[in-house]
Every structure is written in C-alpha cells, then in structure tokens.
C-alpha cells in the first residue's frame, strides 16, 4: 500500500509538470527558449522513477517519463511531435495523455471504416489466448528452478512480449476510452513479422518506434537510409541500457546496446539485399516468419536477457508478481 501512495505522488508531480508545459512553454516561441523552459521538467522526469521501489511500477513509469515523456517534450520544444500537430490544437487533457502515455491518435478516413471493423472482430480470441499463455508463463516462472535454463529463456521471451503488450494496452485503452480517442495499436502481432524491418518498424512496441522515427530517423534520413537506421538503433540501444539501469541498478554492460546495434546492422544488410533482388525473389511467409522470430529470440538469448538475469531482475519481478497475487487473493478472501 505504501508503494501505491508513492506511485500516486509521482504521477501527481507528473500532472503538475505537464500542466506547466501546457500553460507556460507552449506560449514561448518554439526553439531554444522553449527548450530552456522545459529542461527542469526533463530533469524531473529523470529522477521521479527512483521514488518507486518495485519494478512493476518503476519499469513502466521509466518508459513513460524518461523515454516517451522526455522525447515528446524535446520534440515539443521545436514544434514537432504529437504535442504540436499542424492540423488542430491539442486540448489540455489530450496534451497530458499524449505527452508520456503510450497512445497515438489514429488518422481515420471513411474509406477504411469497413476494414477496421473487420480487423476488430478477431482480437478477443487472440487476447484470450494471450491471457492463457501469460498465466502458464507466470506459473512456469514461479517454478523456474525445475525448468531447463534454455526453456526458461523462451518463457522470458513470451513473458516480456505479452506482459509489455498488456501493460501498454491497458494504459492506452483506458486513456483512449476516457478521452474518447481512437488510437493506433501498441503492438501489431509481432510473431507475424516477415523480416526484421517488419518486426522493428511496423509491429513491435510501436509507440517507441514512432518516437525514434521522429526524433532520430527522420532528421538523419537526409544523409541516407543506412545512416538513419544505424543512428536509430544506436539511440534505441542506449535508451534500453538506461531502462536496464533503472530496473537492475548496476553498472551497464552495454550488451543490450550491442544487441540493437547488431540488429541495426542486420537491417542494413536486409535493405541492401532487397535492393539487389528488386522484388524478383522473396521467401515464402511460412519460411520468413519463423526465420525472423527465431533470429530475434536467439539473438536476445545472446545479448538482451543476460544483463537482466545477472542483475537479478527475473527473480525480483517474480517475487513482486507473487506478492501482488497474494495481496489480491487476501483482499478477495476478506471481501468474501
């Protein structure tokens, strides 16, 4: 309960800080002077997550404030990004939500209403399957001593994907319903990815992808596609390294940065190969999809998960989940 009050306190500061950004810096001309007026908020967002002790709350808060929030405020300083749309003013509540929550307002047209309706009929089944899988993975991770280490890494992959998707989806859907917004999906079934470009650019954690595209890829794109891809993955690696530091609190090993640089290099090769074959030859989806997901999973075994495991993140998050389940079970028993 004490941690919950800390969480409320942190997000009360966020509300005050973003209210200031809406009413004060927004009236300063975009550029260096608006940036100077926002720098104290950038610093505040960096230190606020340290007030939380549990990774279940500190992890998402770090993502929302240190990554999404600070990136969006930097863009806002120069009149870019979701806080500075060119076609309409942003209301106060929308500004608060778009600043640091995982939502992107969907651009709709009358022509695609039918297709969006058809695509919305299937998700409930997929959602139910994911809930079932997450439950199985939770039980498995709670008894990891009886699971082979390699199989446990597969469990971590599934747990990371479904847990992250549910966390971002819950926040995004709740916010969208409260503000009556139609939003873009946070994930787009990444297990259907037919290439690394497809995985990172169009299916995995699209809110982070969008922020990196606007703040890194598009400015560097004028020097060429490959430099833009490389710069994007370097920044992504550094930001993930920072996220890991918040989660495990140990000196960075730079393995996760290398993971993203490696994937950026592989996407560069993929782009070159696609240009060479020029559409004359493509792998069947039944081949390209398993190859893509297999490559992502195996490379994550090599570089992504080891720092988290060595830092004890898996054990800590398991204890926190069990503690949460015990707490809710106890509350349910008292209610009965």
UniProtKB/TrEMBL annotation:
One GO cellular component term of this record is:
membrane
Pfam families for the chain? MBOAT_2
Subcellular compartments: Membrane
The Wax synthase domain extends over 184-261
Q: Where are the transmembrane segments?
A: 6-24, 31-50, 62-78, 151-173, 226-247, 254-271, 291-309
Q: Name one GO biological process term.
A: lipid metabolic process
Instruction: Work out whether the entry's keyword set contains Transferase.
Output: yes
Keyword tags: Acyltransferase, Membrane, Transferase, Transmembrane, Transmembrane helix
Q: How does it sit in the membrane?
A: Multi-pass membrane protein
Q: Source organism's superkingdom? A: Eukaryota
- Single GO molecular function: O-acyltransferase activity
- What's this protein's name? Wax synthase domain-containing protein
Q: What is its main location?
A: membrane
**UniProt similarity note:** Belongs to the wax synthase family.
The answer on whether this UniProt entry bears the keyword Thylakoid reads no
Q: Pathway of this protein?
A: Secondary metabolite biosynthesis
> Which species is listed as the source?
Papaver somniferum
């Amino acid at each position: 309960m004490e941690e919950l009050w800390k969480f409320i306190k942190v997000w009360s500061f966020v509300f005050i800080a973003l209210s200031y950004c809406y009413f004060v810096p927004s009236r300063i001309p975009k550029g260096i002077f608006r940036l100077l007026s926002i720098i104290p908020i950038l610093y505040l967002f960096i230190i606020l997550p340290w007030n939380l002790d549990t990774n279940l709350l500190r992890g998402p808060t770090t993502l929302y404030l240190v990554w999404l929030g600070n990136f969006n405020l930097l863009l806002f300083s120069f009149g870019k990004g979701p806080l500075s749309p060119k076609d309409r003013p942003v209301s106060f509540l929308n500004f608060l939500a778009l600043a640091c929550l995982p939502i992107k307002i969907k651009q709709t047209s009358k022509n695609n209403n039918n297709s969006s309706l058809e695509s919305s009929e299937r998700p409930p089944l997929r959602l139910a399957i994911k809930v079932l899988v997450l439950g199985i993975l939770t039980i498995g991770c709670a008894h990891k001593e009886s699971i082979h280490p390699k199989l446990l890494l597969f469990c971590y992959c599934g747990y990371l994907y479904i847990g992250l998707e549910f966390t971002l989806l819950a926040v995004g859907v709740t916010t969208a319903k409260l503000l009556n917004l139609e939003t873009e999906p946070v994930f787009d079934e990444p297990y259907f990815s037919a290439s690394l470009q497809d995985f990172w650019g169009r299916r995995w954690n699209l809110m982070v992808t969008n922020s990196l595209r606007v703040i890194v890829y598009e400015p560097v794109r004028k020097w060429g596609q490959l430099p833009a891809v490389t710069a994007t993955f370097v920044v992504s690696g550094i930001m993930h390294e920072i996220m890991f530091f918040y989660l495990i609190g140990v000196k960075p090993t730079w393995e996760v940065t290398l993971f993203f640089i490696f994937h950026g290099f592989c996407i560069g090769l993929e782009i070159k190969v696609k240009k060479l074959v020029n559409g004359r030859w493509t792998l069947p989806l039944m081949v390209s999809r398993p190859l893509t997901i297999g490559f992502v999973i195996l490379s994550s075994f090599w570089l992504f998960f080891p720092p988290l495991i060595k830092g004890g993140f898996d054990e800590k998050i398991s204890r926190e989940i069990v503690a949460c389940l015990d707490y809710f079970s106890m509350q349910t028993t008292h209610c009965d």
